[in-house]
């Protein structure tokens, strides 16, 4: 083994040592051998004898790396008294000032590549050594602080010859006293403020400012558009017969249904003509006699799907959004058939198809009329409904009249006591000699008559042959005269005079529509039936366990398990196969809480580990007059603190009591034997309620201990010494170099901020459950859905989420040039693309599981819906990234009644803990913070923050 003897004198003169070509070759061979050698523990103090003969490899090894790394170092003559061997990574980490000068001419990509290569090499070596139990930790000595701060070194100050610090502005060394004495660098004259407030800010440029205005304008337009759409959706939403709310955004009455009027609980109840009660029964061609055809919408998606589309819908009474675009004529394509006060029931309907329809088409007598296509058929059939298994048959026949002596058809007695209309299609023989089957009608007008008695018929409609003869059927709708109103009126289609050999005519799709009683909406019978209909509809929702039914609805309807057997297509498995919306809100809140705490815990842990290696030894100075330290006390008012506690605690107690009472939990602890309530606790509901309880209690505790600080004094310390340079608020240390602005805010601003925290502390999770127990008609679902969404947002963005929204709105509406420049700098910050990607990914992993958890057949997301959600998520992430560059994240200490105070803006800088130390990764988690605190001596506190000693 080659050995050499080194003395201190030889080590102190490294520049005079010359290396031969042989020695250089030997060093390269040893270098390649070290790369191939497995990791093994090595004692750094290993020597061969007491005379000082040291192994050459050990001698040139880096003195700062752990021994197991076996890193070869370069001799650094300026380190220590006699120099040291340091590898590139240790040299850069511990003495970045001189390293900065040595590598000034290297390109940036080469410096970053060397840094990444050293990190990978050290990481792999440490991992293998740790796995083999051979890792050793060396004692690290002098370290620098982070890359964006000053670099301590051993070089003397250029002015007073004391220990100096490397200054980036002029690449020279000055002590703190000399550098900060005049407020400008002695070398280059650049401003040298003690805090970041005095640091000059670069102008973002007109483009960035223009983009900030564009973002504000886009957000304002989007908000106005969204509010307008919501308003338009509410105002133009369809109104149904039994008061249900149609589902979806901009719902329409797109279903065309045929309802058996006698199949429900409706026809003739109490002798009054009012709409049929729910649940509706779909028309059946063989058994339905009286039927209702109308446009409908879905009010319960789960019930509609799981009942095979026979439940969960209601007939529309009005639809303002569609009334101007869809025809109300029953003979048109896709008509809008609303159930208004003038609507009614088809008491007669015959399409003349086989088999015949004796129930819905009771003819008393047909003379010389046959089911045939001799004169063709009506090619445009009227709307009869196409829903729930009911389908109209293909039109192949009409009622064709020919023959001698008499041609007529008369119906049985029908109930039209409130009037109505007669609708049919008429065709008379065309003027065409080639058409030998349907003989030409040169004469033989047709009359429509009503008969109150079998032998007494009065005509009220005449249809001349010249007008209705031709190749196509013509639609006719004629109102029933008032004299014909009775509960047993017959209608007769008659041809009085005709030529026996010709004058053929045909009718098709004959329907008689009887009106309901006038003002049926205001009748007591309708009010009673409405209550019964809602109860029956709720029973169906509760049997299927849909979102329209909660535990409170089950108790109010007195639902029994046996009642569900009468529900069409009832399947017990559907009730247990998905989560309800209020369960999803609590589940999302739980997942958001777990994910947020896990991310924050891991990120903060590894960030702290990464920042430890930048810990530095303080270069203390005795210039206490130039760099003072002051302590202030936050103003505390117990009356304010306990008032907030009373508001939040009272709201929580009221919501909890209402929830327990509606769940009949209070009956389990009551001794009142005469009470109608029974002790019946649902385990799943209790679990969800307890989870919601924990969320609300956690939020209240956070506000009381971290915002209001009840019974806890707050100390505010400002230390201007450059070695420390901190603003300490309640054990939280903020570097003064990260401060960017201090601004006076009036009491109104603090009042609004306090109100935001109070709103965030309200029991949203429990409230979303308790609101289901109130009978608020159409408002109930909107309210508990809103509270559920707010509870999820509170877990994602913290208890300050309302305050963040308030501050975001303020910044979107700012107009001053200074604020617009700050907005422009936020637009230019790094990491915005990463924010967009993260937002898109979060939207994707949120939307897809939501639809899967719902398990509703018609609610599967399409590709377009999924892409829209991903795009909106990315845009939301982009906006969040921009807002991270603005002080919209409050750190509030609201310990007294709102008053004028100074709000401090500082940059909460996060360092990427990963191997590559990506700058954009750190920027994603960094943000501007707005510190709101009221101290005793406001003016002195403001001067200290600006680096001025308050003398």
From TrEMBL:
Annotated TM spans: 211-232, 584-599, 639-660, 748-771, 783-812, 832-852, 864-886
InterPro entries assigned: Reelin_subrepeat-B (IPR049419)
Keyword Hydrolase recorded: no
A Pfam family that the UniProt record links to this protein: Reelin_subrepeat-B
Biased composition range(s): Polar residues: 1-22
Alphabetic keyword roster: Membrane, Transmembrane, Transmembrane helix
Leader peptide range in chain numbering: none
Region (Disordered): 1-24
Keyword Transmembrane helix in annotation: yes
Name under which the protein is recorded: Uncharacterized protein
């Amino acid at each position: 083994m080659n050995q050499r003897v080194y003395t201190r004198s030889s080590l102190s003169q490294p520049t005079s040592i010359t290396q031969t070509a042989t020695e250089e070759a030997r060093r390269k061979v040893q270098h390649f051998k070290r790369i191939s050698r497995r990791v093994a523990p090595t004692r750094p103090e290993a020597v061969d004898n007491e005379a000082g003969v040291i192994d050459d490899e050990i001698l040139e090894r880096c003195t700062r790396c752990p021994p197991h790394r076996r890193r070869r170092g370069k001799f650094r003559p300026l380190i220590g008294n006699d120099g040291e061997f340091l590898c590139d990574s240790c040299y850069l980490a511990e003495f970045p000032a001189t390293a900065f000068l040595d590598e000034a001419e290297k390109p940036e990509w080469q410096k970053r590549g060397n840094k990444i290569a050293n990190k990978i090499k050290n990481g792999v070596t440490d991992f293998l050594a740790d796995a083999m139990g051979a890792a050793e930790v060396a004692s690290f000595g002098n370290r620098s602080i982070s890359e964006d701060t000053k670099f301590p070194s051993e070089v003397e100050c250029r002015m007073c010859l004391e220990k100096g610090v490397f200054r980036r502005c002029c690449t020279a060394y000055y002590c703190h006293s000399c550098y900060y004495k005049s407020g400008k660098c002695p070398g280059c004259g650049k401003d040298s403020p003690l805090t970041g407030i005095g640091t000059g800010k670069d102008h973002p440029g007109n483009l960035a400012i223009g983009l900030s205005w564009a973002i504000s304008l886009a957000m304002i337009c989007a908000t106005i558009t969204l509010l307008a759409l919501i308003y338009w959706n509410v105002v133009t939403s369809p109104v149904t017969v039994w008061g249900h709310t149609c589902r979806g955004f901009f719902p329409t009455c797109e279903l065309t249904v045929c309802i058996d009027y006698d199949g429900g609980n409706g026809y003739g109840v109490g002798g009054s003509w009012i709409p049929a009660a729910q649940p509706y029964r779909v028309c059946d061609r063989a058994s339905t006699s009286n039927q209702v055809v109308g446009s409908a919408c879905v009010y319960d998606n789960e019930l509609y799907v799981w009942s095979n589309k026979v439940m969960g819908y209601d007939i529309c009474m009005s639809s303002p959004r569609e009334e101007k675009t869809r025809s109300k004529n029953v003979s048109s394509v896709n008509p809008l058939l609303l159930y208004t006060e003038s609507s009614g029931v088809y008491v007669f309907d015959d399409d003349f198809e086989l088999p015949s329809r004796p129930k819905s088409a009771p003819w008393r007598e047909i003379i010389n009329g046959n089911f045939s296509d001799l004169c063709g058929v009506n090619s445009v059939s009227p709307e009869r409904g196409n829903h729930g298994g009911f389908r109209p048959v293909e039109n192949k026949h009409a009622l064709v009249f020919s023959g001698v002596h008499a041609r007529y058809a008369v119906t049985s007695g029908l109930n039209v006591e409130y009037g109505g209309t007669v609708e049919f299609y008429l065709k008379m023989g065309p003027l065409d000699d080639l058409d030998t089957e349907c003989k030409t009608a040169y004469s033989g007008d047709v009359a429509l008559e009503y008969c109150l008695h079998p032998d007494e018929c009065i005509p009220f409609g005449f249809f001349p042959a010249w007008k209705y003869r031709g190749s196509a059927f013509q639609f006719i709708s004629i109102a029933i005269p008032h004299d014909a109103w009775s509960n047993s009126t017959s209608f007769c289609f008659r041809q009085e005079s005709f030529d026996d050999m010709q004058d053929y005519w045909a009718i098709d799709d004959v329907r008689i529509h009887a009106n309901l009683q006038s003002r049926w909406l205001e009748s007591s019978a309708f009010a009673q039936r409405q209550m019964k209909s809602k109860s029956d509809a709720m029973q169906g929702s509760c049997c299927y366990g849909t979102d329209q039914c909660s535990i409170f609805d089950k108790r109010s309807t007195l639902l029994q398990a046996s009642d569900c057997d009468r529900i069409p297509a009832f399947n017990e498995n559907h009730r247990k196969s998905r989560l309800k919306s209020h369960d999803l809100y609590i589940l999302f809140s739980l997942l958001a809480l777990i994910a947020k705490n896990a991310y924050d815990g891991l990120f903060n842990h590894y960030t702290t580990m990464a920042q430890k290696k930048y810990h530095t030894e303080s270069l203390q100075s005795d210039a206490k007059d130039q760099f003072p330290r002051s302590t202030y006390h936050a103003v505390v008012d117990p009356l304010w603190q306990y008032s907030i506690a009373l508001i939040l605690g009272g709201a929580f107690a009221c919501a909890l009591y209402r929830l327990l009472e509606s769940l009949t939990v209070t009956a389990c602890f009551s001794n009142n034997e005469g009470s109608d309530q029974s002790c019946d606790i649902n385990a799943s509901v209790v679990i969800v309620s307890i989870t919601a309880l924990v969320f609300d209690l956690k939020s209240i505790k956070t506000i009381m201990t971290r915002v209001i600080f009840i019974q806890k004094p707050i100390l505010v310390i400002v230390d201007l010494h450059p070695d420390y340079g901190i603003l300490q608020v309640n054990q939280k240390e903020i570097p003064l170099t990260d401060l960017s602005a201090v601004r006076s805010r009036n009491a109104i601003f603090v009042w609004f901020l306090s109100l935001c925290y109070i709103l965030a502390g309200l029991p949203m999770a429990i409230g979303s459950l308790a609101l289901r127990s109130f009978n608020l008609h159409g408002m109930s679902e909107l309210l508990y859905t809103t509270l559920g969404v707010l509870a999820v947002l509170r877990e994602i963005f913290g208890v300050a989420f309302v305050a963040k929204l308030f501050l975001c709105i303020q910044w979107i509406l700012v107009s001053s040039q200074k604020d617009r420049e700050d907005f422009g700098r936020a637009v230019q910050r790094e990491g915005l693309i990463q924010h967009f990607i993260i937002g898109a990914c979060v939207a994707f992993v949120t939307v897809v599981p939501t639809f899967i958890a719902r398990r509703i057949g018609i609610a599967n997301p399409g590709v377009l819906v999924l892409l829209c959600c991903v795009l909106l998520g990315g845009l939301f992430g982009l906006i969040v990234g921009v807002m991270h560059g603005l002080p919209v994240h409050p750190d509030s200490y609201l310990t007294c009644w709102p008053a004028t105070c100074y709000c401090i803006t500082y940059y909460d800088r996060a360092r990427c803990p990963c191997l590559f130390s990506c700058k954009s990764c750190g920027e994603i988690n960094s943000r501007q913070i707005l510190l709101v605190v009221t101290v005793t001596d406001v003016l002195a506190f403001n001067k200290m923050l600006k680096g001025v000693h308050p003398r």
